[in-house]
Amino acid sequence: MLNNKYGLLIDTSNIRMFIALANNEEIVSSKSLLFPRKQAEMLVPEIKTLLAENALTLKDLTYVGVGIGPGSFTGVRIAMSVAKTLAFALNLELFAIDSLQGYSNFFKPSIVVFNARSGRSYFACYDGLKTLFSSQIVSNDFTLKFIKEHPNFILRGDLRHLNLEVDTNIDAKSFLNYVFSQERVIDIKGLKPIYLKDL
């Protein structure tokens, strides 16, 4: 029988604030919340609420998994700051994943898209652990053509700029699987965010 190994999963890189609690390989609870411009003040209280709802405290955690972008300048830094602080203060293992990968479905080929404005999209494509297209900026025409040519791929992210409605929530189990695929971050202080503007 496995001992309890609780982990906190967080991402604030894009339109949703995602937090989840895992125990070993299972998701205990998760939330995907819309807090425009309020993620900085809401993340820690929501983490504490999530833990309290499961009769746990921060001291029960073993590790934290965080999405490091690409995302907005402020958004990415919120989750990363909290993750680094928790890792340092509580001596937790830290795992970092590409946030666009975190939005994808681990179990099915996925296209992840966000609005890059000026007729462009932030675009990535994954099939489980295989990266078919790494995070990049492409034209909306390319994005729509690729989507049309791959009708069996799951669409994730925010595609309203393409007049497409998709689920904007992060799938907690997929996020957890991507976390488990990463090596532990050794140089916590040196971990750098990925900003959308740098793609």
State mean pLDDT (0 to 100 scale): 93
Report the β-strand fraction as a percent range.
25-35%
Q: How many E-type strands? A: 9
Fraction of residues in helices? Answer: 25-40%
Shape: globular
Main sheet specs: 5 strands, mixed
Unreliable stretches, pLDDT < 50, 5 or more residues?
none
Specify Rg, calculated over alpha carbons.
Answer: 16 Å
Order of helices and strands: EEEHEHEHEEEHEH
* Span between termini: 44 Å
Order of strands side by side in the largest beta sheet? 3-2-1-4-5
Total count of helical runs of at least 4 residues: 5
Q: Which structural class do the helices and strands define?
A: alpha/beta
Topology:
Blueprint: E1 6-11, E2 17-23, E3 26-33, H1 39-53, E4 61-67, H2 73-90, E5 93-97, H3 99-103, E6 110-117, E7 120-127, E8 130-139, H4 140-149, E9 154-157, H5 172-180
Parallel strand pairs: 1-4, 4-5, 6-9
Antiparallel strand pairs: 1-2, 2-3, 6-7, 7-8
Helix pairs in contact: 1-2
Q: Can you characterise this structure?
A:
The chain is of the alpha/beta class and 199 residues long. It is built from 5 helices and 9 strands, in the order E-E-E-H-E-H-E-H-E-E-E-H-E-H. It has helices at 39-53, 73-90, 99-103, 140-149, 172-180; strands at 6-11, 17-23, 26-33, 61-67, 93-97, 110-117, 120-127, 130-139, 154-157. The termini are far apart. Helix 1 (39-53) crosses helix 2 (73-90). The strands form 2 sheets. A 5-stranded mixed sheet has the order 3-2-1-4-5, with helices on both faces. It has a 4-stranded mixed sheet with strand order 8-7-6-9. Helix 2 links the parallel strand 4 and strand 5 (93-97). The mean pLDDT is 93.
